[in-house]
Each structure stands twice: as C-alpha cells, then as structure tokens.
Amino acid sequence: MSQALSAAAAGFGTGLSLIVAIGAQNAFVLRQGIRRDAVLAVVGICALSDALLIALGVGGVGALVVAWPGALSAVGWIGGLFLLGYGALAARRVLRPAGALSAEGEAAGSRRRAVLTCLAMTWLNPHVYLDTVFLLGSIAADRGPLRWTFGLGAAVASVCWFAALGFGARLLSRFLARPAAWRVLDALVAATMVALGVTLLAGA
C-alpha cells in the first residue's frame, strides 16, 4: 500500500509540474473561468484529454518495455535528457518571465467556439504529446507494475489543476495575474524536472 501511495504521489507531483507552466491552454482555461463561460465543458475537455493521453503513454511505453527490455534504458536516456531540457526552459522563464495572464480585452463567446478552441489548444499542441504520452509514459515505465498507479496520480493532478483554474479563477486571477507568481511556479517546475531528469539518467 505504501508503495502504491508513493507511486500515486509521484505521478501527481510529476503531472502537476508538467501542466502548471504558463501556456496558451492554461491562459484560455483561466480566462474562461474569469468570464464564467463554458467552464465545465472546458475543464472537462482538458482533464479527460490529459487522462486519455496519459493512459496511452503509460500503456504504450509499458508494452514496449515488456516486449523489449532494452527500451527502458533507451527511454531513460531520452526522457532524462528531455527532462533536463524542460527544466532548463522553466529556469529560463524564471529569469525572463513571459508576463502575466490577463482576461481583459476579449468578449465571452459561444459554448461551441469555446469547446472548439479548447480542443484545438489541447490536441493540436505537439508539446502535449511529448509531456503526456512520451514523458509521463517513460517515467511511469520505470515504476514497473505500479506504472498505472503513477498514471492515475498524474491524471488526478490534471483534474485538480484545471478545476482550480476554471472554477477558482475568480480567486486565482489576482494571484496568477502577477508575473512573480508564475516565476515561483516555474522555479518549482524547474527543480522538479531537473531532479527527475537526473534520476532517470542515473537509472538508465
């Protein structure tokens, strides 16, 4: 039980670290939440999409490792280097922040437009496949039989984050509207990604 909880907690922390970085999807969810426009639909799309992609990553990479044990070492090296690069980019954002999130200047649109925009930002973004399918899948594969527990933790992190952004936007908007807040988040992301990258490379 303790190992399962540890794997789930690791998945939660890793998943959260990957999705909190400022980006178009997070900005869109926050803005929709501030306007209270199609919030449930937008949050549901983001969370369910992440859960599906995480499942594909955990199942796909896990099956590859079973068929070819040497793949774990290869995935460890590639995933570790990618994590270090991801951490470096997050650290760069700490030193050179992209700016605050703002919901001003745009009018609320139709539910259909909000849904289509959310789907496009989620499924047409190449980084989401790297983060969920490959990156989370490779880290989960290192957990062996507990890889699905790890994936579940990552999926729960996604639900919590998007729900917080969407439904708590009125409370979070003042905090997240400040560049300093995102610098703190990016600093945590950078530290987590570098630590995970070193761990993967050491075990490869």
Textual characterization of the structure:
This protein is mainly alpha-helical and 204 residues long. Helices cover 82% and strands 0% of the residues. Helix 2 runs antiparallel to helix 3. The radius of gyration is 17 Å and the shape is globular. 44% of the residues are buried. Residues 103-108 have low confidence and may be disordered.
Number of helical elements: 9
**SS class:** mainly alpha
The tally of beta strands, per DSSP, is 0
The radius of gyration over CA amounts to 17 Å
Query: What's the helical proportion of residues?
Result: over 70%
Distance between the termini: 26 Å
* β-strand amount: under 5%
The average pLDDT is 80
Q: Any idea what the shape is? A: globular
- Which regions are unreliable across 5 or more consecutive residues at pLDDT < 50? 103-108
